[in-house]
Amino acid sequence: MPSAQSTARPATLALLVIGLATALPSRASAADYDPDKGKSEIATLEATWHDRDRDRDVPVKIYYPKSPAGNSPAGRSPVIIFSHGLGGSREGYSYLGQCWAAHGYVSVHLTHKGSDTEAITQNPQANRKQLEQEIAANPENALNRFKDVSFAIDQLNHLNKDLESPLHGSLDLEHIGMAGHSYGAGTTMVVSGELTHNGRSFADDRISCAIAMSPPQTMPSAKLDQAFADFKIPLFVMTGTKDDSPVGETKAAERRAGFDHVKDTPAFLLTFDGGDHMLFSGRPRQNKSPTDDRYHQLILQGSLAFWDAFLRRNADAKKWLEAGSFEKAVADAGKFEQRNAGHQ
């Protein structure tokens, strides 16, 4: 029969190992999330998918690594679906798609018909701001956006099985991220779990985590707890102190609503000092701010760490976000906050 002393040793050793593991710093570093150091060559694929149920075309542009990420299941790449802002298209936000693909993700950029570039430009005589407000207020456009996302996930499943597709067998559809800007951030929030203003849910449970850039606040403040009660996936909100809406009534300070009201899931908030609404678009600007380049680097750096943490389940990436390293990288560019760090 073993002595009490001999039986205590393994337990003591186990506690020491656990303590050392907890004390060790994250092996991840800023270099791991350097947007300019992606290791994969990338390619693009354009297609127009047709949803027979809605008799609706959904154009897509897919950025993908030529060699799938080695640390994903069977060498498959996690997928990110991106939803553009009002008046955008699949051609926009290329700086995100290119960077994410270079770091081993497949980034699928949708065009939402009815709230895309064509919807704005097909009537050049109209008052642009009034037209944008009408498009944004049309519930049919919002509904179609939610359904476009779920339809796209269905199509990716077909694509993964298509022997003639360059993406055949390369998609890790067990780990799907959702992202968007402005109107697209609103789309992102709803398909990820936020209730609509009339209490309906369009959440797609195949989505694992979400990044919302400049999300609108569509619910009265008193109903925000209810709106986010069923939001159960990790969330990263990005905004700026000058991020007032060019269309609609959302003020910069209100864009943090999702971060403040999700429960029991990790939530992160990056607020750029002086960052405005179009910072996240990546479009060339006549009056470019001297901080734009640095802020874009941080957008890419933070998003890469977030995807690694919650799509690849990389513990070092999660620790890098939560233990102060990314906050240190942000420094005087803005403020990085987090909630519910111990969850998931």
Describe it.
It is a single chain. Helix 5 packs across helix 6 and helix 9 (292-310) packs across helix 10. The protein has a nine-stranded mixed sheet with strand order 1-2-4-3-5-6-7-8-9, with helices on both faces. The chain has one domain (27-339): 3-Layer(aba) Sandwich (Rossmann fold). The chain contains eleven helices and nine strands. It is α/β, with parallel strands linked by helices and 344 residues long. 35% of the residues lie in helices and 22% in strands. The two termini are 41 Å apart. The protein has helices at residues 4-23, 94-102, 117-121, 128-137, 139-161, 183-192, 224-227, 257-261, 292-310, 315-322, 325-330, and strands spanning 42-51, 56-65, 77-83, 106-110, 171-181, 207-213, 235-242, 267-276, 334-339. A hairpin with a 4-residue loop joins strand 1 and strand 2. Mean pLDDT is 89; it is low at 1-25.
